[in-house]
Design a protein that fits this description.
This protein is an alpha+beta fold. It is 28% helix and 15% strand. Bound molecules: zinc ion.
Length: 177
């Protein structure tokens, strides 16, 4: 996409500290690292966000993300590598391209995700809201499949049941079971 920094990096128009490349994915160091080894992985093709990435390409991106996180973890002896997706970067700057952050975490680093102590969240309500939305998405997906079978309430542990899975409706045909 014109004007997208990540597309420009993918085309080689902008210099980068490239750490990985294959036919679909590019991995580079973040030039404003949150921590040592902070990397960014993204599709060479432009997508506005991860929800637009076709299922198989998305799975490839996540697979590579995990592998590179493993490499970072081994090399730098970090405690953990956070694998993050965000539509926003620091200070509310919108990222125009679907990317994944790998943020190595070190002992006693100052990176925090904690909710302020005076803020409380009703976990039951949050649980119900997310589960309801999942059912709505699955409902739409099944409608697109033109299946008449009613989605059964999940009572079994059979994880091979297709109706138990959620994928984004528009990508259903490419879903990997
Ligand atoms: Zn782009």
């Amino acid at each position: 996409m014109e004007g997208c920094i990540f597309c420009s990096i993918a085309k080689g128009e902008v210099n980068s500290y490239k750490i990985y490349e294959d036919g679909l994915i590019l991995g580079v160091l973040d030039i404003n690292p949150t921590s040592l080894g902070h990397s960014i992985l993204f599709t060479k093709k432009h997508y506005n966000n991860i929800f637009e990435i076709p299922q198989e390409e998305y799975l490839h991106l996540m697979s590579i993300s995990r592998a590179i996180a493993f490499a970072i973890e081994k090399r730098f002896k970090v405690e953990n590598v956070d694998i993050l997706y965000s539509k926003e970067i620091n200070k509310g700057v919108i990222i125009p391209h679907a990317i994944v952050f790998l943020i190595p975490r070190y002992k006693d680093d100052k990176i925090q995700y904690y909710l302020p102590k005076d803020e409380k969240i009703d976990l039951n309500d949050v649980k119900n809201q997310i589960m309801n939305e999942i059912e709505i998405i699955k409902g739409g997906e099944n409608q697109q499949r033109e299946e008449t079978k009613k989605i059964e309430t999940k009572t079994s542990n059979n994880t091979n049941n297709e109706s138990d899975k959620i994928i984004l409706p528009e990508k259903k045909k490419k879903a990997i079971a």
